[in-house]
Amino acid sequence: MLNKIFLILFAVAILFMAVLSYLTVAQLNSIGFPPPQIVEYFRSYESLHWLSVWISSLFLLILANVILWTNRSSWALWITLLFFAAFIMVNTWWLTETLGSYQKSHNLETGGILSKNGIFGAIFCIVGGIGIFFNQYIVLRMRDKMFDKPSETVEEKSEIVEKQEEEQTGETTTEEPTIEESKAE
Asked: For residues 80 and 60, is the Cβ–Cβ distance under 8 A?
């Protein structure tokens, strides 16, 4: 049931972000407004785009963590990362480039950060991937501790320690008959 809810919310988030991306670019094709006002409207839609990416990614991440906790399935986390990365790249590469070319064609001042915005988007995606990896690790460790599932490494270490103790004391758990005992029989 949670998987279906996640997929529905994921589809709604993609549809919403696609429409918002289209509306942002459509602002540059507006007629009837002076170019500085069009740029101002574009920037307001672009900031709404940023806010929507972060909020929808946060909701998807929360639901993905619930799925990870209940099913031990991490596919929803990685789908959320793909959603985040795709729309961050849309914003930082496509929308910013479109605004820059519009400003150049209408002889408006371009911001100095526009040329580096794509690099910041790529860094956001890399940091998001690292965050998802550690999020998955932490949630799975917390789930294992909550439900008292001992980790395999602890069991292996306890077996090794028991064998070392037996070797040091010279005692074995299974006693083999000595040669004298077998002759007496």
From this structure: yes
Q: What single letter denotes the amino acid at residue 27?
A: Q
Each of the 185 residues of the chain gets a pLDDT tens digit; together they read 899 999 999 999 999 999 999 998 888 888 878 888 888 888 898 899 999 999 999 999 999 999 999 998 999 999 999 999 999 999 888 888 888 888 888 888 766 555 567 888 899 999 999 999 999 999 999 988 888 655 555 566 667 777 777 777 765 555 555 565 555 55
Output the pTM of the full model: 0.73
Question: What stretch of H or E contains 142?
Answer: helix 117-146
Please enumerate in sequence order all residues whose Cβ is within 8 A of that of 11, keeping only pairs 6 or more positions apart, or say none.
none
Residue 110: φ, ψ to 5°: -100, 145
